[in-house]
Amino acid sequence: MKLINENPWQYLSVKLPMLGAFFMLIVLILQWALDYKIIDGDTAAIIASTVIPALTWFGRKIAQPNLHNVNQFVTVTAGHSNVDPGAVNGKFKEAELVTKFRNAVAHYLKEAGIAIKTDGVGSDNQNLNTAIKLIKGSDVAVEFHMNAATNKAAYGIETIALPKDKKLAQDLSKVVAKAFNSKLRGDNGWIDQSQSARGKLGFISNGGLIVELGFISNETELKTFNEKYWLAARDVSDILISYVK
Ligand SMILES: [Zn+2]
């Protein structure tokens, strides 16, 4: 048996019949304590077999919109924007590469029936403010970037996230590093933003994760990205799908 990680008491279909049963119990205790018959056994049986199931039905029927608006979509965005290319290596611009990656992840999520929000479709890559607005209400929000360093040999994969998302960050980095035959940076692929050289990042402070898909400044890693980004995107989407399910 597998338990669902949620509080059943938030549902009226649980609350109402429980209250009904509790009320009946009080009545039965009272009539025992007072030695006075309020309801007879037949009436109690009728209530138990009709009123209690009816309360369950009503509880299920009454709309609880506050319970249904959460956890309904996954946000995937591309770093930088149409006007900010991010890091550049020759003809390759970070903003364009991560936009392709975003599209690939979005494709696999849609294919799996997951509702998504993105900071644009096709080659469109909206700016950070737009991306941050898409985080609210999402089950999980991920933005893609590529690292760059003056040391051309620097390589590896990392995901910057709040401590609460450490496990997810490590899982995301792991599959990307595997697909790109790269290595994990930071704490097994996780970088706490408090330890990030970039300091506080808006996307992360607002609850998102930033996956650095390797170093654009490293020729091997750039080549691998271009050859295998579909593979990594599929694995990233698999992680996100199992996270939301
Ligand atoms: Zn970037």
Structural write-up:
- The strands form two sheets. The chain has a six-stranded mixed β-sheet. Strands 2-3 form a two-stranded antiparallel ribbon.
- It has 245 residues and is an alpha/beta fold.
- It is built from eight helices and eight strands, in the order αααβββαβαββαβαβα.
- The longest helix has 26 residues, at 219-244.
- Residues 79-80, 86, 94, 145 line the site of zinc ion.
- Residues 79-80, 86, 94, 145 line the site of zinc ion (ZN).
Strand content: 5-15%
> What would CATH call the class of the largest domain?
Alpha Beta
Q: From the helix content, strand content and strand pairing, which structural class follows?
A: alpha/beta
Q: Quote the distance from N terminus to C terminus.
A: 17 Å
The 3D shape can be described as: elongated
**Radius of gyration, taken over Cα atoms and rounded to an integer in Å:** 26 Å
Question: What is the β-strand count?
Answer: 8
Q: Within the largest sheet, what's the order of strands?
A: 4-1-5-8-6-7
- Count of structural domains: 2
Q: Which regions have little confidence, pLDDT < 50, spanning 5+ residues?
A: none
Helix content: 40-55%
Mean pLDDT: 92
Oligomeric description of these chains: single chain
CATH superfamily of the largest domain: Zn-dependent exopeptidases
Q: What is the architecture of the largest domain at the second tier of CATH?
A: 3-Layer(aba) Sandwich
Transmembrane segments: 12-34
GO molecular function: N-acetylmuramoyl-L-alanine amidase activity
Protein name: N-acetylmuramoyl-L-alanine amidase
Domain MurNAc-LAA: 133-241
